[in-house]
Amino acid sequence: MSFIPYGRQFIDGADVQAVVDVLKGDWLTQGPAVEAFEKAFAAKVGVKHAVAFCNGTAALHGAYYAAGVGPGDRVVTSPLTFAATANAARYLGADVRFVDVDPTTLCLDPSKLDPLASEGLKVIAPVSYGGYPAPLDQIIPFARSLNAVVVEDACHALGAGRNGRMVGAEADMTVFSFHPVKHITTAEGGMVTTDDDEFARRLRLFRSHGIERDPSRMSRCDGPWYYEMVDLGYNYRLSDIHSALGLSQLSKLDGFVEARRRIAERYDRLLSGIHLVELPPSHSGHSYHLYPIQVPEELRFSLFNLLRDSGVGVQVHYLPVHMHPYYRNLYGFDPEDFPNALDFYRRAISLPMFPSLEEEQQERVVKVIREFMTRRA
Questions:
Q1: Which spans in the chain are helix H?
Q2: Rounded to two decimals, what is the model's pTM?
Q3: Which residues are catalytic?
Q4: Could you tell me the sign of the dihedral formed by the alpha carbons of 247, 189, 80, 64, in that order?
Q5: What radius of gyration do the chain's Cα atoms show?
Q6: Could you tell me the fold of the domain covering 253-374?
Q7: Fold observed for domain 13-250
Q8: Do you know which NCBIfam families this protein is assigned to (predicted)?
Q9: What is the pLDDT of residues 267-279, one digit of tens each?
Q10: How many other C-beta atoms can be found within 10 angstroms of the C-beta atom of residue 16?
């Protein structure tokens, strides 16, 4: 019986050839393939700038830096995310606060933002969880009223749509990840999209040691070789090898998202009516990085283990960030502080979701769930 992972990459001959072509060329690190990938990505999303990073966490770090986040500032995000969304703010010395999720979307609940309004609020970082587009039409006006920057964590949501535009085109900055289980992969990589020229300039500065080469922005210029480090940046650059793979993968994005939506629709049909199984929220623009079902808390452990024992690589996404020991110890959070995120965590199981998932594999996954739940009806 073959193992079915919860997610995996899809690599074809064109992807392999794109990487081989770079390996045979003159550039391996940051060269023309990076620029080509950035330009194609920006055009796909519909923005002026796309700035590539070595991974999604680095991209988040860069976006917060570009927004001016520093010690004493406050970054607000969802507890239902991977820890990196909060960690990247802590790297810059900011305080992190969480807003509970709306159980109908699993995204940050805009109606709960008001208590966090303050002069210290620098960034609101909504997470488009699982590929469901976060409700920016309610978040952006709130941020504008406080002169805060909106950095959408769309690491789950490449190819998703909202308000007639692709996710990545509405927030001040939007962050994507190219980990192998995401919609496209560069093996490891990330991207920040923005229409703001200054944000783009700061992103590029930050990803390359804080080095400036524009003579108009340097204290002096001794010649064409000259550069200055004007701020403390990092080596967060993406290579030409990774970018070549990303550019090839980007050409397949629409097909990947279409396949994920077909798989989600099939799960919806197969799981509909099964006793005690709650389906994930739907949205016309959903891009389905994840397909998390919810079951009663007292059954989750047994069903999870049964699926794993049956060769199904289910997962749980995620332990809410406020429950990690680092954040509990730092801020004194209690698990019950964000009850919707906690309730989801206690009942969630992410089922396999990737473009090459076969119908027979889906049926095998659902058969285990149906038989388990039937015995408990």
A1: 13-23, 32-45, 56-66, 84-91, 136-145, 197-207, 240-250, 253-271, 297-309, 325-331, 339-347, 359-374
A2: 0.97
A3: 182
A4: negative
A5: 21
A6: Aspartate Aminotransferase, domain 1 (3.90.1150)
A7: Aspartate Aminotransferase; domain 2 (3.40.640)
A8: PseC (TIGR03588)
A9: 999 999 899 999 9
A10: 12
